[in-house]
Amino acid sequence: MNMHLVTGTNNLNQSLKTTPTIPSANFVSEEESDENDLIESEEIERILRIDYNLYESKEESRKREEVLGKLNDIIKKFIYKVAIKNNIPEDIARNTGGKIFTFGSYRLGVHGPGADIDVLCVAPRHVDRNEDFFGELVNILKNEREVTEICDVKDAYVPVIKMKYCGIQIDLLFARLSLKTIDENLESLQDDTILKNCDKESILSLNGCRVTDQILSLVPNVGNFRLSLRAIKLWAKKRGLYSNVMGYLGGVSWAILVAKICQMFPNLKPNKLIRKFFEIYSQWDWNNQPISLNEIKRETGFSCPIPVWPDDSAKSCMSIITPAFPAMNSTYNVSETTKRILLKEFEFFKQFTNMIKQNSSSLCLWKEFFNEIDFFSYYSCYLQIDVLSTNEEDFKKWQGFVESRLRFLIKFLEEVVQIKVHPYPRDFSLNDNKFEFDSTYFFGIEFNDPKSLNDLPYSYLANLNKSKDSILLINLRDVIIKFCHKINEPIKSQNSHQVINIRNPTTMNVRIQAKPNYKLPMEILNRDKKKLIINNNDHREIEVNGYEDIETNFYVKKRKI
After folding, report:
1. Which of residues 169 and 357 earns the better pLDDT score?
2. What is the CA radius of gyration of the chain?
3. Out of 221, 402, 453, 527, which residue is the most buried by the measure of CB atoms under 10 Å away?
């Protein structure tokens, strides 16, 4: 797969530039908000509530509480049943307890209608993960009339049962404590001694609850934190930046980033916290300064099977550290490619949010802050990755596996010095003619200026392109073959430790091809721009497409093939 490269330009909108300022990691500002900030923050909440329906109704909240109550009862009955099976006396078995805890967006208070609930089942030491949680409990849940679409994922890094209960998506994790009973009055999992004698999977499962509660305890104003996080999460999803598996950031990382800004600027309202978010992180020393909310605890008096960050595998180009013991880097999947895209987005929106004014003459509005990225107009060429299967069961397994391996394709593409890629984490169904089930991902391709490549050492170019004369010929074939070998490799099961092959060659396939933008499906390319008249620096009236032109002027990425 070869492409030819020609020179392009990269002119940024100079009028958007601002003076850089960045405080130290432990900086705390005394800056305060005023009445206008309150009005602006209320406008942001109104947009989230009315335009995007990000707040669930009281009825939906009650339904969630009812479902969690029912699930908690099931867990207690399940643990009692396992106790009886293990010959524990009846009177003791009835008091062995068991309890569920929530974490993630639901526990943080930033979930919306239809969002899933992350739930942790905490059990005493007589309950086994494989035999009981993934055996007995799964059978009990399958017999519940209100439980549907149940699926156990034993081989996940954090093993989980996925299901819908009364129509609400539940991700159920399991932690076995080294206790004979789980007290009904156990309200918090923050005591580090609760991890003593726990296995790795239990500690990872407990970590979700412990990190969530730590974040809430470390922010100075929970209300301001929640509104700011809701806004940043929506923005990240609209901009194609909300994906841990693709090498961007997941929910925990975004929450820690917002919490850090809240710590640094405890007296500011959400509108200014959002501006500070982009101002600080666009200039942060990511190579040398991790983001952390508290002092990292190293010792607890007992051994822990999970090393505390940093450890021997701590190499990371963007470190965001979880606040609960054992401290871990939540951004281990971030690559140089995704880091570059994140920082460019931070820079653009630092400038964009500073252009938002609370008056009718403002060119930029908070509503436009949440505009979806116009990804398919950025580039002249795209890499299309089709994940294909002949049946639904194989497709679910294959699609999830290939998606989890796309970060390797991103890494391999970094070796091709003539291009930069922009992975887009959203998948599309394009109705393949040969396979009934399909999912398609796109990477934008940006071509580097050949003149800058000619300045690279000959030895470096020779390793990639044989000679400087072939610098204009871009060979993607070797990279794609390398990726195909990667997804065809046998993997070690997390649960059974057996070596297994994920791909069934008769029912599963991957197709990768480079396409010019004019050959992309029309349903992907549809856009709707609003026309707007503004004055430029020469006081001449010019027509622009409002937000879209501001964005395009910053991201001048179109290249000719």
Report:
1. 169
2. 26
3. 402
| Residues 407 and 329 both lie in one domain | no
The per-residue pLDDT for 38 is 97
Give one DSSP letter per residue of 302-353, joined into a string: S--SSPPSS-TT---SS-BB-SSSSP-BTTTT--HHHHHHHHHHHHHHHHHH
- Greatest alpha-carbon pair distance for the chain in Å reads 87
Catalytic hit among 132, 152, 171, 386: 171
- What pTM does this model have? 0.89
User: Which CATH number goes with the domain that contains 31?
Assistant: 1.10.1410.10
For position 204, what pLDDT does the model report?
97
Pair (25, 81) in one structural domain = no
Residue from 52, 55, 63, 116 carrying the catalytic annotation = 116
Domain that holds residue 245: 12-55+219-362
State yes or no: pLDDT of 441 exceeds 50: yes
Contact 419, 406 (CB under 8 A): no
Nearest to 114 by CA among 68, 64, 65, 148: 64
Are 519 and 386 within one domain?
Answer: yes
What's the full length of the chain, in residues?
A: 561
What's 173's domain CATH number?
3.30.460.10
233 is catalytic: yes
Band the pLDDT of 466: cuts 50, 70, 90: very low
Q: Check the CA dihedral 486-490-493-497 and report its sign.
A: negative
Do 341 and 239 lie in a common domain? Answer: yes
Residue 66: phi, psi to the nearest 5? -65, -45
CA distance 460 to 457: 5
Has residue 196 been placed in a domain?
Answer: no
The domain total for the chain is: 3
pLDDT tens per residue across span 230-260: 999 999 999 999 999 999 999 999 999 999 9
Residues 50 and 108 in one domain: no
| CA 50 to each of CA 54, 56, 122: distance values in angstroms, whole numbers, following the listed order | 8, 11, 37
Pairwise CA distance, residues 312 & 303, whole Å: 17
Which of residues 187, 209, 242 is at a domain's end? 187
In a domain, 485, yes or no: yes
Q: Tell me whether residue 118 is one of the annotated catalytic residues.
A: yes
Q: For residues 454 and 412, state if they share a domain.
A: yes
Split at pLDDT 50, 70, 90, the class of 431 is confident
Q: Which of 41, 76, 99, 105 is catalytic?
A: 105
> Annotated catalytic residue: which of 99, 233, 276, 350?
233
Residue 196, sorted as left (phi over 0), alpha (psi -120 to 50) or beta, turns out to be beta
Mean pLDDT on 276-302: 94
Of 138, 164, 187, which residue is a domain's last? 187
**Same domain as 402, residue 262:** no
Answer yes or no: 105 catalytic: yes
Q: What is the CATH number of the domain that holds 403?
A: 3.30.70.590
Q: Tokens 């035999």 — which residue? A: 131
For residue 542, tell me if it sits in a domain: no
According to DSSP, residue 499 is labeled E
Distance of alpha carbon 465 from alpha carbon 150, whole angstroms: 50
433 vs 147 pLDDT, higher one: 147
- Whose CA is closest to 362, among 352, 347, 373? 352
Looking at the fold, whether 97 and 149 belong to one and the same domain comes out as yes
